[in-house]
Amino acid sequence: MKMKPSLCAALVLTGLATHAHANECGEFTIADMNWNSASLMAHVDQFILNNGYGCEADLIPGDTVPTGTSMIEKGQPDVAPELWTNGIKEALDHGVEEKRLRYAGNSLTDGGEEGFWVPAYLVEQYPEMATIEGVIKHKALFEHPESDDQFAFYTCPAGWTCQITAGHLFDALGLEEHDFDKVDPGSGAALAGILAKNYEREKPWFGYYWSPTPVLGKYDMVMVDFGSDADVDEYRNCTTQPDCETPKVTMYPPSPVHTVTTEQFAVAEPSAFEYLSHRGYSNQLMSKMLAWMEDEQVDAEDAMYYFLETYPEVWKGWVSSDIAEKVESAI
Fold it and tell me: Cα(13)–Cα(2) distance, rounded to whole angstroms?
């Protein structure tokens, strides 16, 4: 039977309308976490999704535990761009099992990095300094601020979880037997300041630090190799536990840093979810961005524009060419 032109046109229009509806992007919320890297991610995601995909994404305040709990219990916010999941992994996994949450991807592609570090200029002068044996061999370089008979290892500030892990690894490596002493900087700002002061004077420095951070974006540091792999079981069951009496040597395992969404969002917004699954930052790039934000004293919105203008080769790899054109025209 020959179809009438009017009926044919109607079916075509209906098909186009259905296709357009399937690709529409709706309204949702993104957690704007209260630390710079997560806030930058939130602003970049909002800009790309709104201008490239036609979404209506709004930013709302967030923090790790409250945001994760709210997403599980209330289904809000829809997206958490940067969740350091180790601390709430059990709750998040349970939320995934109950079809309330979904892991979208790795927001930090390297994971959060922790370790004992020395400046790169020391390793250039003494290549063996990239290993713990080399640090011990040249221990006399690491002057203690209060003692002529001991050598300084700058540890994590008191009260932080990393004070426990750094202390256990200090013991496992036998650094006290080589006359090293744990020097508590007093605060995170003081630890950053001591490292920066020594680096800018090209003096030796040995201690704990983590990435991504502004400090590791500004200064070229080398993570010291302990001569072991990362033993995740040892790290979880002993290194992180205050009452562990016999710690063993292990490198810090990377801390998973995920983008997490509600299951409802993942189903309702497949295009936006796919974007979040492909989007990720290296620690080196994020550290550079954090250093720039600190030096320029700008907020996440200003940093978002700087990132989009300065690193198009990065974000264009997350989206299709037509989406990239829309985003670029909106910058």
Answer: 19
Domain 26-111+256-330 in CATH 3.40.190.10? The answer is yes
- Average pLDDT of the segment spanning 263-284: 97
26-111+256-330 shares its CATH topology with 113-239: yes
pLDDT band at 8 (very low <50, low <70, confident <90, very high): very low
C-alpha torsion angle, residues 197, 33, 267, 325 (rounded to 10): -60
Residue the block writes with tokens 């490239």: 52
Q: Is the dihedral of CA 314, 315, 320, 323 positive or negative?
A: negative
Q: Is the pTM of this model over 0.85?
A: no
Burial 143-171 (b: 16+ CB within 10 A, else e): eeeeeeebbbbbbbbeeeebbbbbbbbbb
Q: Rounded to an integer, what distance in angstroms lies between the CA atom of residue 165 and that of residue 208?
A: 10
CA 186 to chain centre: 24
User: 196-204 long-range contacts, Cβ below 8 Å, gap at least 24?
Assistant: 198/119, 199/119, 202/119, 202/121, 204/118, 204/119, 204/122, 204/138, 204/141, 204/142, 204/143
Neighbours of 242 (CB within 10 A): 9
For β-strands 27-33 and 56-62, DSSP reports them as parallel
Residue type, 270: P
The domain segmentation of the chain, as residue ranges, is 26-111+256-330, 113-239
d(CA 86, CA 232): 12
Average pLDDT over residues 122-141: 98
Q: How far is CA 39 from CA 47, 178, 301, in A?
A: 12, 43, 8
Share of the chain above pLDDT 70, in %: 93
The answer as to CATH 3.40.50.1820 being correct for domain 113-239 is no
259: amino acid identity, one letter: T
Check residue 299 and give its pLDDT.
Answer: 96
**283-296 helix and 36-52 helix, angle to the nearest 10 degrees:** 100
Q: Please spell the DSSP secondary structure of 42-57, one letter per residue.
A: HHHHHHHHHHHS--EE
The H-or-E segment that residue 81 falls in is: strand 79-84
Q: 274-301: string of b/e by CB count within 10 Å (b at 16+)?
A: bbbbebbbebebbbbbbbbbbeeeeebe
